[in-house]
């Protein structure tokens, strides 16, 4: 009985600590912000189901940011390590503190046949500070 009570206490404590996420799904484009009941992310499109049952399809290339299941993704500049050119990719925001945001990007490596997690650090002026590679 004591173990059950401790397990339940830990479960409720973790849900309270995890409460930092977004409670509403949304999508932001150049000219519109759409709030959704549910947001489904596909390979090329994001489908937003509104409260009244209407569905809106948005191309992923038109998105600037979106939140789904309590997590936030933003279109951010990424430096290509081979060419040095700046490209844009949807990165998941992991943490933000003291003007520095940490974003995570998952890349698939054909050479190693696995996903790699790249962590990008940005300062408040949207200038990239560094890129660090960590494999998952």
Describe, in plain words, how this protein is organized in 3D.
This protein is mainly β and 136 residues long. The chain has 1 helix and 11 strands; from the N terminus they run H-E-E-E-E-E-E-E-E-E-E-E. It is globular, with a radius of gyration of 18 Å. About 12% of the residues have low confidence.
Strand count:
11
User: What portion of residues belong to β-strands?
Assistant: over 45%
Class derived from helix and strand content = mainly beta
Q: How far apart, in Å, are the first and last alpha carbons?
A: 38 Å
Lateral arrangement of strands in the main beta sheet: 2-1-6-7-8-9-10-11
Main beta-sheet strand count, sense and barrel state: 8 strands, antiparallel
Average pLDDT: 77
Overall shape: globular
**Rg, nearest Å:** 18 Å
**Helical residue percent band:** 10-25%
What are the main properties of this structure?
three-stranded antiparallel beta sheet; 136 residues; eight-stranded antiparallel beta sheet; mainly beta; 1 helix; 11 strands; 57% strand; globular; single chain
